[in-house]
């Protein structure tokens, strides 16, 4: 049996649609929490309590844009900090 099929089965037999939906929702929650941009409109606590139907309505494009913007801002901040430190060492 493939690992995917084995993961989809519970100890009492094949997983139900509801069990599979909750497993998918748990994965979406983990993804959203792990990649949550700073100052995003959702909080980690809210995502952790969201029912599956709400999770699957999250605007992924807006989430991705916020993530990329936050990442760019963080990298710019670190670049500027490194440049300042380097300039201070050079003077």
Spatial gap, N to C terminus:
65 Å
Oligomer: single chain
Radius of gyration: 20 Å
Global shape: elongated
Count of distinct strands: 2
What structural category do the secondary elements indicate? mainly alpha
How many domains comprise the coordinates? 1
Strand content: under 5%
* SS element count, helices: 5
Helical coverage, percent range: over 70%
Low-confidence blocks of residues = none
Task: Show the helix and strand layout.
Elements (H helix, E strand, L loop, with lengths): L2 H5 L1 E2 L2 E2 L2 H18 L9 H6 L2 H4 L4 H31 L1
How would you describe what is shown here?
The radius of gyration is 20 Å and the shape is elongated. The chain contains five helices and two strands; from the N terminus they run αββαααα. The mean pLDDT is 86. By secondary structure, the chain is mainly alpha-helical. The protein has one domain. A hairpin with a 2-residue loop joins strand 1 and strand 2.
């Amino acid at each position: 049996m493939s690992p995917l099929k084995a993961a989809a089965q519970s100890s009492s037999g094949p997983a139900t649609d509801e069990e599979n939906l909750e497993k998918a929702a748990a994965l979406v929650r983990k993804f959203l929490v792990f990649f949550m941009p700073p100052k995003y409109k959702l909080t980690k606590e809210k995502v952790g309590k969201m029912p599956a139907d709400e999770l699957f309505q999250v605007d992924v494009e807006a989430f991705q844009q916020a993530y990329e913007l936050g990442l760019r801002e963080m990298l710019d901040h670190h670049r500027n900090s490194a440049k300042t430190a380097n300039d201070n060492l050079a003077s």
